[in-house]
Amino acid sequence: MGERGWWRPIGRRTLTSMRAIWKGAVSFGLVNVPVRVYAATGTKDVSFHQVHAADGGRIRYQRTCSVDGEPVAYGEIAKGYETDDGDLVVLSDADLAALPLTTGREIEVVEFVPEAQVDPLLYDKAYYLEPDRTAAKPYALLREALVQTERVAVVKVALRQRETLAVLRVRGQVICLQTVLWPDEVREPDFEVLSAAVTLKPAELAMAASLVESLAADFDPTQYTDGYREAVRVLVEEKIASGDVRRAPAMTEGAGGTDDDGEVVDLLAALRRSVERAQARRGEAPESA
């Protein structure tokens, strides 16, 4: 069946077809790596509009005040925090903009930790870091250092004017910025049934292990597809083919580079000074050159 209407299969998007959402630099020690940040994932869900079933008109929502029932312009809307006593604290955009939080264009490395120590439950959104052309070498240096030490970099970064905790980890040739949840955002399970003693027989454990082994495989996410999305696609194309469509009604208005040798010398010097600073903070004697 030919491709018609709004349904167009979308292939993998490359970085050249995506727009950077943030530009700044990774800072570790005295080394700065200028980078651009791209969203690593994107939803492929079918996009629907809410419409009036009778005539296909788009459904609109109007912001109204619950006190006087009058429409409210977007510029007149503020954020309100209600206390336990029922009092309301109103915060304007100016109030929030004045908060003393980091908003610089820097991804600050705080420490390097073993990757196995980061609970996957903490992982949130993923981004790709693309280095500037002049920063290819320090970028590769950071990437290979993470791979060889089997560690990730814990960083702080201000995305969309809000400080976020994240880690830098390696995926292939790319360094990924993976935001993580703050510790108090993760719920601890409290299932009473799990506290009860359970007796497992050796034969039961052996059979369960045998079942696991019989289904063991290397993980390949490309073999899985979204069955619901495919079913919706088929449904839409069947309606198009049968002529069960209508014309949508019109809506009413309502940094400079350096030569390669100089770059190597500067990078090594910055790394050496960074190591010396880290050793001094820990009370360690500096290594001899």
Question: Could you characterize the architecture of this molecule?
Answer:
Residues 69-197 form the Ku domain. GO terms for molecular function: double-stranded DNA binding. With LigD forms a non-homologous end joining (NHEJ) DNA repair enzyme, which repairs dsDNA breaks with reduced fidelity. Binds linear dsDNA with 5'- and 3'- overhangs but not closed circular dsDNA nor ssDNA. Recruits and stimulates the ligase activity of LigD. It is extended, with a radius of gyration of 27 Å. It has helices spanning 93-97, 136-149, 202-214, 227-241, 260-282; strands at 22-28, 31-39, 79-82, 88-91, 106-114, 123-131, 151-159, 162-171, 174-180. The protein starts with 21 loop residues before the first strand and ends in a 7-residue tail after the last helix. The chain is built from 5 helices and 9 strands; from the N terminus they run E-E-E-E-H-E-E-H-E-E-E-H-H-H. With 289 residues, it is an alpha+beta fold. It has a domain at 13-42 and 99-185: Ku70, Chain: A, Domain 2 (Beta Barrel), CATH 2.40.290.10. Strand 7 (151-159) and strand 8 (162-171) form a beta hairpin. A 7-stranded mixed β-barrel has the order 1-2-6-9-8-7-5. Strands 3-4 form a two-stranded antiparallel sheet. Residues 1-11 and 255-260 have low confidence and may be disordered. Helix content is 24%, strand content 24%.
